[in-house]
Amino acid sequence: MAARIITVDDLPLPILRIGGADVSNTRFDPTKRVYAAVVTRDAVTDAPIASASETRIADFPYVPGYLGFREVPALVVAWSRLQVKPELLLVDGQGMAHPRGLGVACHLGLVLGVPTIGVAKSLLVGTAEPGPEPGDTAPLLWKGRCIGTAIRTRRGAKPLYVSIGHRVSLDTAVAIVAAATRGRRLPAPIRAAHDAANAARRGLPAADSPTT
Length: 212
What we know:
The protein is 23% helix and 28% strand. An 8-stranded mixed β-sheet has the order 3-2-1-4-5-8-7-6, with helices on both faces. The longest helix is centred in the middle third of the chain and has 15 residues, at 67-81. It contains 4 helices and 8 strands; from the N terminus they run βββαβαββββαα. It is globular and about 40 Å long. β6 (137-142) and β7 (145-151) form a beta hairpin.
């Protein structure tokens, strides 16, 4: 699967609708239930356009490095319910910054056939330390090669780790993520997907999306 990832830009520009994907769960939940959410936002105004979720019992155990096999099936169902699809999807998790080059963002992009970007809040492999100012970046290096970019989106905040998911180059991925943060640490579509996944876990409707 990793060999099939497209690492150059193969997406419509300009992006008019941008999406976010996230999964909420309790690691030691005996029911192994996962709560997946996908949202569509206006890429210019960040207005909510659509949101969909899926709750299911995972049929794959929690294994570090194999989260795609646990989370992607639920995300695919949520995507199928999304009435207005985004042209690009930001995924809360790793893309190619992964020991096997196939984080959840790559896995989801490959299964759906859509452009995806991995946006992770912590490192899985590699090292990178960007400067302290918003917009400062540093290459994420592992075993002598660049597998992503660390970007400081807010002063004093921990960096984000951006990597290719599918059909997006690394330079384009970093530029899109930086623009989507809108002064916050996390890109707006990721924040919206996170809220929607947590709402699904609590049995509540998504807070600001017209379609759930």
